[in-house]
Every structure is written in C-alpha cells, then in structure tokens.
Amino acid sequence: MSTFQVAVGDTLETRSFAADSVQLFLYNAAIWNPHRIHYDLPYTRETEGHPQLLIDGPLQGDWLTQMVEEWLGTHGVLTAFAYSNRMAAYLGDVLTGAGQVTECEGQSATLSLTLNNQNNQTTTVATARVRFQARP
Amino acid sequence: MSLLTDEIRALIGTEVAPFEFEVSRNDIRKYAVATGQRQQRYLDGDEAPLMFLFSAMMPVIPLSELLPDGRQPDSPLIPELPLKRIMAGGSEYQVHGRILPGQVLVCRQKLADLYEKQGGSGPLIFMVFENRFETRDGEPVVTELLTRIAR
C-alpha cells in the first residue's frame, strides 16, 4: 500500500519550459512532423502570419504529463490525461507549468494543470488522473 | 438549420484499416531527450511516455506526397464539411497499460462523433476521432479521443 499522502489543493512544483530551436527540431524529428511552422521561419512569418516558430501543442501536453509523473514518483501511475491548447506558443516563450490536486477518491486523484507563458497567458490546460500503486 | 446533414452524420463510425506501429527503444530514447524528459526509465527507453504515441500517428510517406506546408495529407476520416478551416481541439487519453520497447501496437482509428455548436464568431463542427492502441493479442494499451474543430 502506498504511503504517499495527497489532499485536494496540494500543488505540484512548478517547472519552466523554454524550448530552443535545437529542441524544437529534435522533437519534430522524433515524432516525424514535417510541418514547416516548426522549423522554417520565413515560411512561418510570410505565409502563416506567425511572428515566430511554433512550439508544438502535443509537446506542451507532454510537458504537463512530465510534471504529473515527477510529482507522482514511484507512488502510482497515470491512468488518464486530457489536454487542450488554448493559444499559440512560440520559440522564445518561457512556459511555466503549474498544477494542483482537485479531487481525491480512494486510491485515485485528479489534477488540474496549466502552462502559462511569460505574459501569464494560458497556452495549454490539462487534467490528469492517477492511481496510487507501486509502479512496476 | 443544421450544418450536419444526414449524409454527413452517416459517416460517424467510419473506420480506416488498422495499422501496426513497432515501439523501438531507440525511438523512445530520442523522444525522451527531445522532450526534456527527466525520468530515467524513459531516457533509457525501458518504457515510453504516453505522448510518445503521437509519433505513431504521423504517416511515413514519400517526400513527393507532402503538402506545400510540409505536412502529411489529412486523415481520410476527415469528412467533407461545409466549414473548411480545421483547428486542433485537444486530446483525451485513457491509459490501460504500459508502452514498452519491442511491442507491436495495432492502431485502430475511427470517426467516433460529429456534433455542432454555435461559437462566438459563427458555427463550429466538432469531429471526434477515436484512436485505439492495442497489442496484437487485442489487449488495450491506450485509447485516445482526438477532437478537431471546423469553423
């Protein structure tokens, strides 16, 4: 039985994410995403009308799962995750992840998470559900 | 008046042929480094993080078939709609089991739902796609509901 003590309102340690062009390139290569808005700045500006290369939405979702799993440690597993990108995030943005426990029920808990940019605008929201158990 | 005609609604439930996706330790390691992962089991490729599965959905097709913006052509499950601008709407994942190196996952995709809402600047059509990842033995691993919005 896990001894991890969790209560509604508990907050996760914040974490900042600031992908540079190398990380953005490697991420899109790793997921095999050839969309120019992630590596071709002239195209991104002139054709798509964005001021800078875009940080992938799923990468932001991944970052929030990382925060949950770092908080959870060896005390449980992620059983559900939902995320939605609310506005564009650009290369050069510093995105700060935050999260808190919103529900506890038996051996499960639900967390609410956000990524905010340096202007305190929310780029991504998410919810995660975890189950407390010894992780294999 | 509804934008979703009976003909369009009849497409709900449409599936495409399942495809297989081999999970490799090296691909997991690359993904873990690229995402700034700090969990050693992912960095070592002993297990894949949930969002690694996003890479499974990216078709590997010849360069000559990529669109001018670089992207692969859209899924054939996207119906012909009266609204043409397609936006991402988010994803929901149910995790049934671990994603492990050496696994061959079978991905089954279908158009799970279509519905419409009135947005602030006009009508919106929501397309919900179900992506089921399971083992070759049929054990579910992850189920994703991916929403895209036409406006």
TrEMBL record, chain A:
Coiled-coil residue windows: none
UniProt-listed SUPFAM superfamilies: Thioesterase/thiol ester dehydrase-isomerase (SSF54637)
The protein, known as: Acyl dehydratase
Species in which this protein is naturally found: Alloalcanivorax gelatiniphagus
Upper taxonomic lineage: Bacteria, Pseudomonadati, Pseudomonadota, Gammaproteobacteria, Oceanospirillales
Automatic annotation (TrEMBL), chain B:
InterPro entries: FAS1-like_DH_region, HotDog_dom_sf
Domain FAS1-like dehydratase: from-to ranges: 10-143
Superkingdom field: Bacteria
Name assigned to this protein: MaoC family dehydratase
Organism: Alloalcanivorax gelatiniphagus
